[in-house]
């Protein structure tokens, strides 16, 4: 498993544990639902601003 996939799974677990939808999280960090989906699947790297 690549690091971006591992981080994506962690993001998804964090989001689901708090009952947030991808859209909810996207609004919180000022991005799109598509971007959240890409982070969670490992199709896109989440930068440091998103992670911290």
TrEMBL record:
Pfam families: HTH_3. Residues 11-52 form the HTH cro/C1-type domain. It comes from the Bacteria. InterPro entries: Cro/C1-type_HTH, Lambda_DNA-bd_dom_sf. One of its GO terms (molecular function) is DNA binding. This is HTH cro/C1-type domain-containing protein. It comes from Tetzosporium hominis. Gene3D superfamilies: lambda repressor-like DNA-binding domains (1.10.260.40).
């Amino acid at each position: 498993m690549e690091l971006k996939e591992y981080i994506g799974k962690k993001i998804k677990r964090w989001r689901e544990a708090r009952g947030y939808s991808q859209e909810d999280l996207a609004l919180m960090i000022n991005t799109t639902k598509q971007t959240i989906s890409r982070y969670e699947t490992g199709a896109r790297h989440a930068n440091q601003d998103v992670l911290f």
